[in-house]
Amino acid sequence: MPVDVQAEVLDNARLSDDYNVIALDAPGIASVAAPGQFVMVKTGPGLEPLLRRPFSIFEVLRDRAGRASGITLMNKRVGLGTTQLFEARTGDRVEVLGPLGRPFEVVDPPTLAWLVAGGVGLPPFATVASALLARGTDTTLFYGARRGGDLHRVELFEHLGLRVVTSTEDGSRGERGFVTVPLARELGAVGPDVPVRVYACGPTPMMRAVTALARQHGRRCDVSLEQTMGCGMGGCFSCVVRVRRPDGPPHFVRSCLAGPVFDGRDIVWEELAGH
Predict the structure, then answer these.
(1) For 26-42, what is each residue's pLDDT tens digit?
(2) Which of 8, 72, 83, 193 has the greatest count of CB atoms below 10 A from its CB?
(3) CB under 8 Å to 90, separation ≥6 — which residues?
(4) Neighbours of 250 (CB within 10 A)
(5) Closest CA to 223 of 252, 198, 254, 187
(6) CA–CA dist 175, 181 (Å, integer)
(7) How far apart are CA 247 and CA 129, in angstroms?
(8) pTM of this prediction?
(9) Where along the chain do its domains lie?
(10) Which CATH number among 2.60.40.10, 2.40.170.20, 3.40.50.300, 3.40.50.80 corresponds to the domain 112-227?
């Protein structure tokens, strides 16, 4: 069950003029969080913004004894709520509800795990990568952004021991082009007898393209959708998404409950084009 806590801000690391990673003292959430789950955060003490904001759990922090003691969130300053988190100071307290949502399924060897992150789609993959590596699963991160300055915390994944493949649209870091370029090349190179599970998070067009590439090569792609959420617990119906089902026509589900992780083959992508 999720818990609602007043979490103390332990640290606020600025990554750029718009990105930061905020560390929160939240052992009740950290101790039960599964890879790919999220939290709903009330970003300020007043009435504005009124609704909480969803954030994927980035890292699970541990104390010297190895016990889960807190979480970090990666934030991009866009509006009022994200600006409040960007400007938070050590010692401030924020209300955090979680963990919420359906997590990623973590595969075992000999299956290869390929994580595909676009822009702000990176946060779910720190916990996913840690869980995969703990199982001994060979894991690769494909990480793309518009420019090199938007590729954050690459060193975290390299330190974990992942193979990291970067790409940027302007060619300022890694390969020039979309992240789907190196992904398509490697999907075509790996033999059909080698099992591969693809995981994706990022802009909707990217996840749709990654799902299509994976399917073209006979691979499953699990995606973490970034729908607008008002409550995170299924009460407001603001995050509905249309999915296919084997025993009938497509139907709507609440992504905060049925997701945010879905088998990409089940999503009716055409209806998410505007997201």
Answers:
(1) 999 999 999 999 999 99
(2) 72
(3) 9, 10, 11, 12
(4) 13
(5) 198
(6) 9
(7) 34
(8) 0.94
(9) 3-100, 112-227
(10) 3.40.50.80
